[in-house]
């Protein structure tokens, strides 16, 4: 990404205050993956304070949900926040989680694909995909695919405003030169360092949102970069020394590090801000500033190829 694009991201940002700018969410149903910690937990907490009908907090264990609910319930004691067991590294778990939502509600207004793993040691998911790609992209792709009919149904309701938000990252700049290494996605990809493989998944999150916007124009689908959140990618990727990495660090230095509350703002903004002011398929940086991303992230052919590859894989797996 050109340096100018990063610097422009510092201008014309939205001054977003969740307490003031999140509208009344009465009647709305929301799903947040990884809502038990970090920016996911903060997203649930802030949305819960504005009276949604229900928030499904998807986490790997009930213990993680219970721990998160201590703070969420303190901030929003009347909120209806339900637990959904979700392991994104298992497509069977993803299908089960989606089925629970489909069985329990007649609408879905907001899906925040927040969960993920970062710079994980080499490995494979239960379904045989590179561990980070299988978790960060394939798991969310299946979850979204399973929930899309309900979201499309919701778009026909009076006053509907249906959103999908993919948590990406400026780390998409660290993706391999080819962008998505399709030939290696069913291997551990040991010739690549974990930071590069993480970047590949974050690129996939952007491309997925762009293709969702093209195929489902009635749903606002976006991807977001949270900023350099404390304990986030900065430390684990310091070993990268290419131009994109250096430019990313320049941007992060100028923008400054963020705490979890600040890091959640852009995905909360994308979930609730005025519909007409959000561009379908766009990639946003803090807070609510559209950014062109890398050349690869805007590649329509790559987005379509990823969509088709993903669909073929899911069908072959029986989903």
Automatic annotation (TrEMBL):
SUPFAM superfamilies: NAD(P)-binding Rossmann-fold domains
Single GO molecular function: oxidoreductase activity
Keywords per UniProt: NADP, Oxidoreductase
Record has Metal-binding as a keyword: no
Entry annotated with the keyword Nuclease: no
Family note: Belongs to the short-chain dehydrogenases/reductases (SDR) family.
Protein name: Oxidoreductase
Species this chain originates from: Rhinocladiella mackenziei CBS 650.93
């Amino acid at each position: 990404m050109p340096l100018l694009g990063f610097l422009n991201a510092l201008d014309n940002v939205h001054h977003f205050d969740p307490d003031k700018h999140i509208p009344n969410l009465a009647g709305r149903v929301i799903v947040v993956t990884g809502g038990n910690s970090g920016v996911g937990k903060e997203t649930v907490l802030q949305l819960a304070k504005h009276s949604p009908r229900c928030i499904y907090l998807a986490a790997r264990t009930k213990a993680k949900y219970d721990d998160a609910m201590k703070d969420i319930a303190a901030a929003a004691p009347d909120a209806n926040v339900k637990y959904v067991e979700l392991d994104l590294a298992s497509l069977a778990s993803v299908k089960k989680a989606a089925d629970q939502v489909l069985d329990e509600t007649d609408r879905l207004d907001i899906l925040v694909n927040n969960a993920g793993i970062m710079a994980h040691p080499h490995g494979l998911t239960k379904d045989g995909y590179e561990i980070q790609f299988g978790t960060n992209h394939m798991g969310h792709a299946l979850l979204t695919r399973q929930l899309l009919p309900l979201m499309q149904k919701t778009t026909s309701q009076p006053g509907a405003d249906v959103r999908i938000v993919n948590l990406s990252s400026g780390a998409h700049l660290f993706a391999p030169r080819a962008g998505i290494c399709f030939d290696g996605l069913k291997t551990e990809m040991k010739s690549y360092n974990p930071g590069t493989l993480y970047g590949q998944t974050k690129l996939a999150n952007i491309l997925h949102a762009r293709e969702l916007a093209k195929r489902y124009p009635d749903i606002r689908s976006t991807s977001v970069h949270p900023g350099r959140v404390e304990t986030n990618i900065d430390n684990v990727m310091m070993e990268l020394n290419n131009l994109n990495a250096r430019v990313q660090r320049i941007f992060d230095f100028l923008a400054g590090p963020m705490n979890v509350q600040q890091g959640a703002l852009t995905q909360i903004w994308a979930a609730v801000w005025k519909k007409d002011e959000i561009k379908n398929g766009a990639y946003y940086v803090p807070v609510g500033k559209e950014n062109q991303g890398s050349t690869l992230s805007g590649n329509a052919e790559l987005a379509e190829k990823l969509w088709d590859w993903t669909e073929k894989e899911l069908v072959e797996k029986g989903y």
